[in-house]
Amino acid sequence: MSYRAPVQDIRFALEEIAAMDGLKATGAFPDLSGDLTAQVLGEAAKLANDVLAPLNWPGDRQGCTLKDGKVTTPDGFPQAYQKFVEGGWQGLQFSTDHGGMGLPVAMGCALMEMLQASNMAFGLGPMLSFGAIEALIAHGTTEQQELYLPRIMTGEWSATMNLTEPQAGSDVGALRTKAQPNSDGSWAISGQKIYITWGEHDCAENIVHLVLARTPDSPAGTKGISLFLVPKFLPDDSGNPGERNAVTAIGLEHKMGIHGSPTCTMEYDNATGWLVGEENKGMACMFTMMNSARLNVGVQGVGIAERAYQQALAFAKDRRQGRAPMTQGEAPHAIIDHPDVRRTLAVMKAKIEAARAICFHTAVEADYAEHHDDEEERAWSKRREDLLIPIAKAWATDVGVEVTSLGIQVHGGMGFIEETGAAQHYRDARIAPIYEGTNGIQAMDLVGRKLAMAGGAAIRELIEDIRQTIEDLATSSNPDLNGLAEDLGPACEALEAASDWMSKAAGEDKLSGATAYLKLAGDVVGGWLLCLGALSAQRILKHGDGDEAYARSRISLTRVYAETVLSAAPGLVPQIRLGAGALFDPGEAMLESA
Amino acid sequence: MSYRAPVQDIRFALEEIAAMDGLKATGAFPDLSGDLTAQVLGEAAKLANDVLAPLNWPGDRQGCTLKDGKVTTPDGFPQAYQKFVEGGWQGLQFSTDHGGMGLPVAMGCALMEMLQASNMAFGLGPMLSFGAIEALIAHGTTEQQELYLPRIMTGEWSATMNLTEPQAGSDVGALRTKAQPNSDGSWAISGQKIYITWGEHDCAENIVHLVLARTPDSPAGTKGISLFLVPKFLPDDSGNPGERNAVTAIGLEHKMGIHGSPTCTMEYDNATGWLVGEENKGMACMFTMMNSARLNVGVQGVGIAERAYQQALAFAKDRRQGRAPMTQGEAPHAIIDHPDVRRTLAVMKAKIEAARAICFHTAVEADYAEHHDDEEERAWSKRREDLLIPIAKAWATDVGVEVTSLGIQVHGGMGFIEETGAAQHYRDARIAPIYEGTNGIQAMDLVGRKLAMAGGAAIRELIEDIRQTIEDLATSSNPDLNGLAEDLGPACEALEAASDWMSKAAGEDKLSGATAYLKLAGDVVGGWLLCLGALSAQRILKHGDGDEAYARSRISLTRVYAETVLSAAPGLVPQIRLGAGALFDPGEAMLESA
Question: Measured between alpha carbons, how far is B298 from B252 in angstroms, rounded to an integer?
């Protein structure tokens, strides 16, 4: 059940596919270099491999407990969190102006993958703090920033996001938590929030809750929502945790997975809070966090899939059953040599690499969108980021579920036994398609908002990029790369056809095909990025200036993806075009079990 | 969390799609009639709905315990088992000559679906006894049959299958349990068996273990395996449970799901047993059970999917969030009216119906293979049964996992909370693709043995049948049915092309594409059978002699399946042709996480 952070794979995706090194030219990351990347990722890998990974399975068994409003996390979590704080990891991707390490968001994603892979339940704590830091940098007052940011940035204090209420899930606008103004400029927050990740715990000395609530006489729906900062302990005059605020964990969810992550019901009973950003503009503040949070959940899909994959691969090398058709030597042979098992592993690996590439490409574009010195380039990258965020979130988390399920399957009967550990990954992975906007919500965002952005520019630009890659593959001197073009070409045409259809379809027809469209888009974008990697690998082979065996493996793995995933992509177009009529005209009777 | 057995859906699949009524003409089922079917299924539904379903969730929470070799099943299980015994359900599908009810295997499958849907952990007990009855009817001595069959047939005694050992999972031939002859004609069985479903429990007064073991000097591998009957209590002279035999449950697995089903490690310490069938022919005896057991596991996939679907449908009608684009009236609207949710539900329902149709068609053909008075017809039906068994097992259990996962997704955040119950179905469903031969083993059986049977006759005959249906659809007066032909046609061509490729491919290439081929075959066969149902529905509409609203729903649901699943089927052909070279030529390096 050990985990070894795949530093070479991560660097390949960051540097060879997502071209993170180009960010140096923006001037925002003067120290960025291959050496720095190697050093930072190497240190992060130590934390993940040696500190967090061993706590994963015991944490699942033990879970969290709530007593008298206090949450106890699994044994070892508080100590591991201290090591996370000591490493300064929470501030990795934030500006040095605010006390961060000043590295790209893309490096933050790489760190996040390792945290989530090594211990998803633990990794959720830092993930939530990431989002809160972003919101405070973007929308907090100078006073709020000076008081809270340094302490959240170190990890000494953690942070949460409080959106959901029982009647307000996907429909955030239905929330009812109230904020009443106090005479001193603060607000009194009252209401109940559910599903609050790391809402209460014993790892940090204070917890800063970012809470969506309604002020008196605010407009209905999302236009009447404001964001408030509500600390567990009110900072005293020195900024240290002082008086206990009236916010309490009153329940812990009994979940299928991520048992080590306390999912709390939080009660706010005239708790003292401060407005973040403008009144009634809370949704805008949430959207600031949202892109980052959704990308990080996509990365979580990558991480949990990688973890499950490593375990399945190790098992397949070790477990011997029967005679494999192409294997010499005495049976029983290792099951990795059985074609069906090897295919399963190859497809798992290829999909993980594709999902990782989608997430890291999105992250690098987010960095460009923030830091490029050319305004048009910033806008281009922002469009790309915005387009890919729902794909990164939904496609990568679906891969997380699929790969962890295949991980169980590779184990056979042992996969169903909890002690093996494969089942935990499968249980843990299942939350990621749900939270931060269900994958259905992502698909609606993609077809409803993102395709229409700037007159459809983002998808057009994406298809242009893919076409360029097809041409590069087709004109390569390596016939293996020519072969990739034969799968990427029709897949790209399918994406274009489906996108054209979407641009003309009625709203309800778009929504009826949204999930299928997102799958097609993810299949194609993932394949395109793997092909970019194959082109990089070909350059390494040509110039002999890198790990040639590794480069060859990248091309081989891309072929597996192309011939299994990309080749099936055109077949998805008809179901995208299904239309609402097929679903709604027959009435609910069609859906009844009779 | 309630469950209502879908009697009308089940009858439609049995009677309109699988044409079970035709079995009456064989003479083997003289009482078979629509009335009898309705009455039997109605009674079975009462047991499932009222007795078993309410025990499902508490059974998951409580699980089983082992103390001093005794297993305690969850509260209510022993009483529910008594009701199962009182109803005579265990003998439903077995000849009256042996004390059964003398109904078709297809009716047994219908019962099995209800048992598994209402309470999968409970249903496993009867499922295992079904298989043992078949083995004893086919291979037991008259003495064994007279002593054991009546008691297992009533359910007073239950039965198990003991194959797996730690080193012998998919490779049964690697087992080591020993059988030494005793002087009185009995045998002394020694060894350890793992993953023994209902190996020990408190529901029946005796447990009859069917155990695979090796006799002295037996040949290596599967050719040296014999089957033994080992009762927990040795029958006394009156045939009642007497002396305790030396077989003990020494461990209970801690599993991800089916917590109410005791999965035991069994220790045989010179336990007394009797040979069933000939020495060294144990595998043949196991194969007798295997078809039935594999079909029943496929039915289990249908059952657990149906259960999850009913829960998701009820939730989607009840839960209100946001504004649905095509819905009048004040928001929030029920989420069933959101196109993405409705599509999810429609696809779930369509796949369940397809999986049910595959299983019941297979079962009816199994009945014909046994009872048709024409030898050629028997052989034809046997080929069809043999061809479809791996598809029924693997495709339907994959649908079980997929649909239970979608069931969670429909629930959003609540789906991940154990108290909701959706998570249990997802956890329970995950075992079905693993046991009774993993789905990879099924795929290998399909491409390695079943396609080649009788010179490829079975797949040719299947494709002929599908072609006939395409013609019937294309010439229908109902344009909706003409539309179905447009999806079924290319899907059938894809299956034919893939089958042709398989017939010529090298062994390792076949195996590399086996899982993808099985998926294609299931997608197409499921669609074909739904189309048969649509043709039946059209006849009902034309003659006005049935439930017309229901008939219209069947056609509408078939359209959803055709436009989502069948339309994507041709896209699966390239990945079937992937070939072993793409997987093995790059070496294991391609699979390493670096």
Answer: 25
Question: Token pair of B30, please?
Answer: 């003289």
Residues in chain A: 594
Residue A506 has pLDDT above 90, yes or no: yes
Q: Least CB-CB distance to A594: which of B6, B322, B575?
A: B6
Interface test with A, best of B416, B441, B557 (most A CBs within 10 A): B416
Query: Helix, strand, or coil here: B458?
Result: helix
Nearest to B495 by CA among B451, B542, B435: B451
Give the CA diameter of chain A. Answer: 83
What is the distance between the alpha carbons of residues A310 and A117, in angstroms, rounded to a whole number?
10
Task: Kindly report each contact of residues A90-93 with a partner whose C-beta sits within 8 Å and lies 24 or more positions away, as own/partner.
Answer: A90/A126, A90/A129, A90/A130, A90/A133, A90/A152, A90/A153, A90/A154, A90/A155, A91/A133, A91/A153, A91/A154, A91/A155, A92/A40, A93/A130
Neighbouring CB atoms inside 10 A of B216's CB total 8
Q: What is the pLDDT of residue A414?
A: 97
User: Nearest Cβ partner of A591 from B254, B346, B571?
Assistant: B346
> Taking CB atoms and an 8 Å cutoff, what residues of chain A touch B310?
593
The whole-number pLDDT of residue A288 equals 82
Which string of b and e fits A218-243 if b means at least 16 CB within 10 Å? beebbebbbbbbbbbbbbeeeeebee
Residue of chain B nearest A61, judged by CA positions: B254
> Would you give the DSSP letter of residue B320?
B
Q: Which residues lie across from B272 on neighbouring strands?
A: B188
The letter for the amino acid at A167 is Q
Structure tokens, B502: 């398989």
What's the Rg (C-alpha) of chain A? 24
Note the residue count of chain B: 594
Q: Do A313 and B591 touch (CB under 8 A)?
A: yes
Q: Which helix (H) or strand (E) holds A563?
A: helix A548-564
Per-residue pLDDT of A141-152, as tens digits, reads 999 999 999 999
Partner-chain contact B408 A430, CB within 8 Å: yes
Beta strands B157-162 and B206-213: pairing type?
Answer: parallel
A407-412 mean pLDDT: 98
CB count, 10 Å around CB of A33? 12
H-state helical runs in B20-88 = 34-46, 56-62, 77-86
Residue A373 Cα, gap to closest chain B Cα (Å): 35
Nearest to B552 among A516, A564, A586 (CB): A586
Per-residue pLDDT of A159-214, as tens digits, reads: 999 999 999 998 999 999 999 999 999 999 999 999 999 999 999 999 999 999 99
